[in-house]
Every structure is written in structure tokens, then in C-alpha cells.
Amino acid sequence: MNKKKKIDPLAGEELTKKVKELGNLSKEEKARACGYYTVTKNGVERVNMMKFLNALIDAEGIQLDSKQNGQGRGGRSASYRISVQSNGNLLIGSAYTKQMGLQPGDEFEITLGRKHIHLKQLDGDGEAIEE
């Protein structure tokens, strides 16, 4: 195996430019040429495809992870649709209450329309809070 100087892995614009220059090479050859490989004790080169592909995704500005608002967990996002459950209840999920800044214990007055439900938030004295 020929000795060649290992380059630091490319990132950002340098990475995307180099990948485009390498044209018809395989993914593994592109990853190696961009510095995404290690050499084992036995002198065998191992291409790190996961690091290469993640760096390429980052360089292209593609956002795969959702923003987590400091909550530590992603969870589902609000769809603004709910269904009546088999027991007849309507459950408004935490995504909505968090978005509205509601806290445990907040109270509401419920007004029913023909096909809608209106919630009016109450203060500690049971008076409606005006918006």
C-alpha cells in the first residue's frame, strides 16, 4: 500500500465543490478523496461513509432534525386536527397548550356552537380574560 499524507476531512463549501469536481467517482472514492477515512493499525483504509454523508448534508444546508425548542425531545408536531376518541372525549395535545403558553391548572369556559367549541380562558377569580 502506498503511503500518502492523510488530509483533514473537508467541510462546507470546500466539500461540495470537491464532490462536484470528482464527478463520476463512486461514493466511497469521493469520501476518501475528501478525507473521510481512517487507517487501521494494519494499514487498511476504512471509509467513513456516515461522517461523509452527514457532512455533505450539513454543507448543502439540508435540515433533517426538527428544532427542539429546548425540550430535549422532538415528538410530533401539531397538525391542528383532532378526532373524537372512542370514549367520546376530545383531547387537545400538549403541542397546542405549549404553543399557547398554558400551564397546568389554567381554567376555561366552554361555549358550544353548532359545529365548533369556543374556549375562553378564565383568571383566578373565574372572570374571563379579555384578549
TrEMBL record:
One of its GO terms (cellular component) is protein-DNA complex. GO terms for molecular function: DNA-binding transcription repressor activity; transcription cis-regulatory region binding. Residues 79-124 form the SpoVT-AbrB domain. It holds the Pfam family AbrB-like. Keywords: DNA-binding. Signal peptide: none annotated. PANTHER family: SLL0359 PROTEIN (PTHR42182:SF1). This is Transcriptional regulator AbrB.
